[in-house]
Amino acid sequence: MFLHRETNTLYVADTNNRRIQMFTLNSRSSTGVTVASNIDSMSGIYVDDDGSTMYVALRYENRVEKWIKNALNGEQIGDQCKQCTGVWVDKEKNVYMTESGTHSILKWSPTTNTKITVAGQTDELGQTADKLYFPRSIYINRLNDALYVADMMNNRIQKWNKNSQEGITIAGSKDGISGYNDSKLASPFHVWIDEESDVVYIADSENNRIQRWLPNELTGTTIAGGAERGNANNQLSLPNSLAFDNLGNLYVCDGHNHRIQMFVLIENQTCPTSRSHPLFTK
To answer: Domain 40-281: what homologous superfamily?
Structure first.
C-alpha cells in the first residue's frame, strides 16, 4: 500500500488478484480503479511525486519493476533483487530495494545503472548493528536521506544515516527477541516516518497493532489495533502496511482481513485516541 499525498490517492497491492488498485480519497466512493494488472508476488509499492510512475517490488520474481502510467507491462530495473520485499525512491530518483534474500538493502542509480549495498552485509544475517535479518519495508527521509528499515526477524526498526556503516535501533528489540509489551515488536512489516518530527510508526504485525514511537524513547504507544487478532473495527489481523494522509488520518492495510482500515485520529492530539471503520474491503 502507498498513499500518494500530493494527490490524496491510495494505491493498494491487491496481491491475490494480481493487480494494483487506486482509490481517490477525495471521493466518498470505495470503488477502486485497476491501474496495473497481471503482476505476481507483489510485496511493495512506491509512487513517484508526479503520480505517473510506480515502482513495484516483486518478491518471488526477484526484481523491481517500473510501471509508467497506462502501460500494459512493467520494466525491470536494477537487475536482480533476491526476494525483493520493499522499494523506495529518494529525491535524486535513486531506487532503494529490500533484498530480503541476502539480508541487505540495495541502492540503484538510474543515471549510472549501478547498484550498491547501503545497509546490511550481503548474505550475512545477524543481530549486530551492521547486519539485518530478513528486512521488509524501507523508508527514506528526504530531509536528511536517513534510511529506515523494518528489520523483521530481528524484531526492530533500524535507522541508517547517510553513508553509515551501521544502523541504530530506534524501536523494538536490541537482542532480537520478539515480545508483546510496549518495549518490544513481533515481526514488524512496515515503517513510516513523520519526516519533520522523526516520530516512527510501525506495523507490528504479529502483535496485530500499529505502534507510535517517539524519538529516543524506549517504549512505543499503540494507536490502532492491539485488541487481539480479529476483524472487528478495533482489531487488526497481521497488518502489513500503513500511511497517513495530509489531515493526519491513519490508513492500515489489514492483511489477513483483506481490507484497508482508516483510523480517524480524534483532534490530532500528540498522543491521540482513535476510532476506525473499514474503508475498502476485498
So the answer is: TolB, C-terminal domain (2.120.10.30)
How far, in Å, CA of 20 to CA of 7, rounded? Answer: 17
> How buried is 56 (Cβ within 10 angstroms: 0-12 exposed, 13-18 middle, 19+ buried)?
buried
- To the question of pTM greater than 0.90 for the whole model, the response is yes
Q: Are strands 84-89 and 95-99 parallel, antiparallel or unpaired?
A: antiparallel
Cα 105 to Cα 121: distance, rounded to the nearest angstrom? 9
Sheet (strand 114-120) strand order: 84-89, 95-99, 104-109, 114-120
Q: How far apart are CA 220 and CA 213, in angstroms?
A: 5
For the segment 123-162, what is each residue's pLDDT rounded down to a tens digit?
A: 999 999 999 999 999 999 999 999 999 999 999 999 999 9
Contact 107, 120 (CB under 8 A): no
